[in-house]
Amino acid sequence: MGHTLFGVLGLFSLNILLDCGHAQDALLHIEPNWSPLFTEEKVTFICDSREGNDTDWNYSFSRNDGFFTTNGTSNRYKSSSVTTEDSGEYQCVAHHKIRPDRRESNKVSLTVSNVPRLVLTVSPSWPSPGDSVTLTCTVGPPSAGWRFFWLKTVPQQSNTNYYSGELLPGSTTGTEQDSYILHGQTHTAGYGCRAGRGDPVIYTPYSGVKFVWSGGVNPAASLTVSPQRLQHFSGESLSLSCEGNSTEWRVMRADEDGFVSSCSSWGRVNRSTCNTDDRARSGVYWCESATQTSNAANITIHSGDVILVSSVHPVTEGHSVTLGCKLRTENLLYNVDFYKNDQLLPNGVRGELLLSAVTKSHEGFYKCRGRTSPRGLDTLTSAESWLSVKDPEEAASSFVFVVLLVVGLVSGVLLIILLLLFLCRYRRSKASGLSRSQRTNQSPATDHMTNQGQAPDGHYASLLPGDSCLYETIGGSEEPEQGTNDEPETSVYQNVKMETTAEGGKHLHGQNQGNG
C-alpha cells in the first residue's frame, strides 16, 4: 500500500515538472511585470539559470523563436523604448561556460499597446453649493502601476479654445488612487487629469476637460441671458453678456457632445457680449476670463412648437417662482399640464405654474405639455429644464460680498481724495514759506520778475478752479535764488496741467470699468 501511494505521488510530481518545465530549467521574468506595456516604456528581461552564480553562464534571448542577442555575459537585457512591434513570446537560454549544460527558460508573453487615453468623469456635475465633487480618472484598457495627477484648468488668453492646468493640492507627485475629491465646490470650474508610471516616467496624454457647473450668481463674474429663460426656439437669436471684475471676458459653450468653444466660433462678439443670431445650439454657456468664471446656464434649443419658461438662475429657498408654457407664435399656451420628473403636477392657472415658498424638494426636471393642438402646431411638449434652489445663506453671502465691494471702492476713493487734499495743503504751505523768504531777501530786479505775474490793474489774475495746487507745486520746486523765464514756465505749466488731466481721466475711466 505504501509503495503504491509513493508511486502515485511520484507520477503526479513528474506530470507537474513536465507541465511547468524541469526543476533545473532557467526562469525568465520581466520588469516591470505589468501588462500590457505601452509604447515608449522600457523593459528589462532577466534570465535565472537557477544554479550557481550568474557569472558562470552565458545568456541568449529570443522573441518568437528568433534570437536577438546571443552568448552575452549578463543575465539581464534592457530594451530601449518598446513599440507595438515588440509584442510576442520571449524566452532565454543559459549556456554554462565550462560544462556542456544548456538550459531553456519558460516563455513569457509580452503585449505592447499605444499609450492609453484617459477618461475623466465628475460626479455630480451640477452640485449644490458647498457639496463635494468626485473626479475619477480611468485608464483604458485597465493596467497597473499608474499615478494620477489632477489639474484645474486655466484659460489661455492667447488661444480661446485651449486651457493650461494648475496641479491641485496633494497632486504634485501624483496619487495612487484614481479618484480625487473636491470639497466645498461653489463656482463653475474645469478639471483634467493625467497619469504616469515607470522609471523613467512615461505620461499619458491629458484627459479632456470636464466642468463642474454652478448656476449660482457670482458677483465677481456673472452671465446674463436674453431672453431671460433656459429654453429657446430653434432659429431664435440669443444675447449673452458677461459682467464682473474683468475687462477680457469671453463667452464659452460646451455642447451636448462635450465640445468646448468660444463665441468667436459660432457667434458675434461685441466686447463682453455674444450674439448668436440664429446659430444657437443646446449646451452649457458661461463666461470666463484669466482669473474668473461665471455662473453657468444649461440652455436648451428646442425644435418643437412649445418651450418651458423658467428662471435662468437658481431660485432662493423661501421665494416664489412662476413657470410658463410658451408657443413659438409668441402666444402663451393656456390649456397645458406641467410635469416634474415626469410626474403630473396640479394644473397651472392660465398656462402658468406658481411655486410659492420653494424648498429643496422643488428641485427637479420640469416640462409642460399642451392638451390640445392648435392648427399648424404639431409638437406641444417642451423639453425638460432643471429647476435649482439655493440656500438663503448663499444669497446672503453674495449680498454681503456686493456690499463689501461697494464699501471698499467708496473707501478707496475717499482715501485718495484726502491724500490729494493733504498734498495740496502741504505744497501750499511750502510755497508760502518760500514766497516769504523771497520777499525778505529779493533785489529790485527780482521784485520786478515776481510782479510780472500781475494783471495790468495791479491785481493778480485769478487761476481756474483746481489749478492752484498745480501752479504752486511748480513754484515751490524752484530754487529761491534762481530767476524764472516766462516762456519756459508757461510751457511747463501747460504740460503738467495736460498730463495731469489726462492721467486723471484715465484713472477715473479705469475705475468705471472695474465697477462695471
Shape: elongated
**Structural class by sheet pairing and helices:** alpha+beta
The end-to-end span amounts to 101 Å
Main pleated-sheet profile: 5 strands, antiparallel
- What's the pLDDT, averaged over the residues? 77
Number of strands: 36
Beta content: 25-35%
Can you give the helix content as a percent range?
10-25%
| Low-confidence blocks of residues | 1-23, 395-407, 434-516
- Cα Rg: 39 Å
What's the helix count? 5
What does this structure look like?
This protein is an alpha+beta fold and 516 residues long. It is 22% helix and 34% strand. It has five helices and 36 strands. The strands form ten sheets. Strands 4, 5, 7, 8 and 9 form a five-stranded antiparallel β-sheet that branches. A hairpin with a 4-residue loop joins strand 26 and strand 27. Helix 2 crosses helix 4. It is elongated. It starts with a helix and ends with a helix.
Properties at a glance:
about 525 residues, alpha+beta, five-stranded antiparallel β-sheet, 5 helices, 36 strands, elongated, disordered N terminus, disordered C terminus
Topology:
Elements: H1 2-20, E1 27-31, E2 37-38, E3 44-48, E4 57-63, E5 66-72, E6 76-78, E7 88-96, E8 102-104, E9 108-110, E10 112-113, E11 117-123, E12 133-140, E13 147-155, E14 163-167, E15 179-182, E16 189-197, E17 202-203, E18 210-212, E19 221-226, E20 231-233, E21 239-244, E22 250-255, E23 260-262, E24 268-270, E25 273-275, E26 283-288, E27 293-302, E28 306-309, E29 315-316, E30 321-327, E31 336-340, E32 343-344, E33 352-355, E34 364-370, E35 385-387, E36 389-390, H2 392-441, H3 444-450, H4 468-476, H5 486-515
Parallel strand pairs: 2-10, 20-27, 29-36
Antiparallel strand pairs: 1-3, 3-6, 4-5, 4-7, 7-8, 7-9, 11-12, 12-15, 13-14, 13-16, 16-17, 16-18, 19-21, 21-25, 22-23, 22-26, 24-25, 26-27, 28-30, 30-33, 31-32, 31-34, 34-35
